[in-house]
Design goal:
By secondary structure, the chain is an alpha/beta fold. The protein has 2 domains: 18-50 and 308-414, Aspartate Aminotransferase, domain 1; 52-306, Aspartate Aminotransferase, domain 2, CATH 3.40.640. The chain has 12 helices and 15 strands. Helix 10 (308-331) packs parallel to helix 12 (398-414). It is globular. The two termini are 29 Å apart. Pfam families: Aminotran_3.
């Protein structure tokens, strides 16, 4: 269904209209049920209409629906920032600010690193995704469709290969590209920061090489460069732990948060070392809606649910189910298009490749439609749009997860 009042520049993956959802299931306006492996693109780690989140939202809505924190502080903002400071697994004191989204968190992080270093250049990575605002577009490691027709972008921004077992790029190759960058393209003294995802989302659920991450951390420390880690999609339990950067053996200077931070309500944050968050003058950070009290209440309820015990159990159960099914598909040669399993923990992607070894983009398009017809919603990713990223709620019931994997299996097997 088309609607002339909505911009046609918004790409729709699934041409249906949703009406309601419960945990990992949604229903459209025609009453058809779907198992949701999209989760609002990583927003719903606790599922649709999580009872604890809904209760917190309703209670807060009857008390205070909004106040701009920079006009007069409100309790939910203060409470949430205190909880986040405890929840972020780093050794230094954490400070931060709330935003409306992950992209807004990235924008503010860029302001902070410029002020802290007196430098402007940013190094990002191929396949990365950090938002659709004008500054974050240039960080993205992919042109189409994000950078098309918008002209010159804020910068300077440079890109390096993303080293990962999933991408086939080694740590040594990425470090060699880093050496070349500073030999040929830009002087290292002009670089303010590196920005990276510990597990790329839009890029296809590619997990960063820990060896490279540790080498990069040492390089940044030696050269006075800040390291921003984007946990917008990989954070809040997606990999089975609080944040994915802990598996890399590093601590970032700044961390970007969003998506599943508030159980489905719009919220993001930039957090990190206190002296960095205090570097801009009074009024340099803030926003009218940033840290809305209802969204803060939802985030507090989300953190109540995300105990280490829960995250570990949810992550292990989901990882075991996905990996075991994938290995079974491999063993019985389910499809000539079945490629690698990417990612870590419960953050997994399934690559589709042609028998000749090229990305099977058209096969993924067929699979999206077939799965939807059979009651399963899937989300594409990857530079060639050839990797299915699996984002069911961490709280999905085992029988619903298996039902969804059954649909995936039958639909992929039918494509020839």
């Amino acid at each position: 269904m088309t609607q002339s009042s909505i911009s046609e520049s918004i790409a729709i993956v699934h041409p249906i209209t949703l009406n309601r959802g419960v945990n990992a299931e949604v229903w459209d306006t025609e009453g058809k049920r779907y198992i949701d492996f999209v989760g609002g693109i990583g927003v719903l780690n606790l599922g649709h209409c999580n009872p604890r989140v809904v209760e917190a939202v309703c209670n807060q809505a009857s008390r205070l629906t909004h106040y701009a924190f920079n006009a007069a502080p409100h309790a939910p903002y203060k409470q949430l920032m205190a909880r986040l400071a405890e929840f972020i697994p780093v050794t230094y004191p954490v400070s931060g600010m709330l935003t409306n989204s992950g992209a807004e968190a990235a924008e503010n992080a860029l302001k902070i690193v410029r002020a802290a270093t007196g430098r402007t250049a940013v190094i990002a990575f191929d396949g990365g995704f950090h938002g659709r605002t004008l500054a974050t577009l240039n960080l993205n490691g992919k042109v189409a469709p994000y950078k098309q027709k918008v002209g010159a972008l804020p910068g300077p921004v440079y890109h390096l290969p993303y080293p990962s077992e999933d991408s086939g790029v080694t740590s040594q190759e990425a470090l060699k590209a880093l050496d070349r960058l500073f030999s040929v393209e830009i002087d290292v003294s002009e670089v303010a920061c590196f920005i990276l995802e510990p597990v790329q989302g839009e890029g296809g659920f590619l997990a960063l090489d820990p060896q490279f991450a540790q080498a990069l951390r040492r390089f940044c420390d030696d050269k006075g460069i800040l390291l921003i880690v984007d946990e917008i999609q990989s954070g809040f339990g997606r990999t089975g732990q609080r944040f994915a950067f802990t598996r890399l053996g590093i601590e970032p200077d700044l961390i970007l948060l969003g998506k599943s931070i508030a159980g489905g309500l719009p919220l993001g944050a930039v957090v990190g070392k206190k002296h960095l968050l205090d570097i801009l003058p009074k009024g340099g950070l803030g926003g009218t809606y940033s840290g809305n009290p209802i969204a803060c209440a939802a985030a507090l309820a989300t953190l109540d649910e995300m105990t280490d015990t829960n995250l570990s159990a949810w992550g292990e159960n989901q990882e075991k189910a996905i990996v075991s099914r994938y290995l079974a598909w491999q063993q019985k040669k389910l499809s000539p298009y079945l490629g690698k399993l990417t990612g870590v923990g419960a953050m997994r992607g399934i690559e589709l490749m042609t028998p000749e070894g090229s990305p099977a983009t058209s096969v993924l398009a067929q699979l999206l439609g077939s799965a939807r017809q059979n009651g399963l919603l899937l989300m594409p990713s990857g530079r060639s749009r050839h990797i299915i990223r699996l984002l069911p709620p961490l709280t999905i019931e085992p029988e619903i997860l298996n039902e969804g994997l059954d649909i995936f299996e039958s639909c992929l097997a039918e494509i020839r």
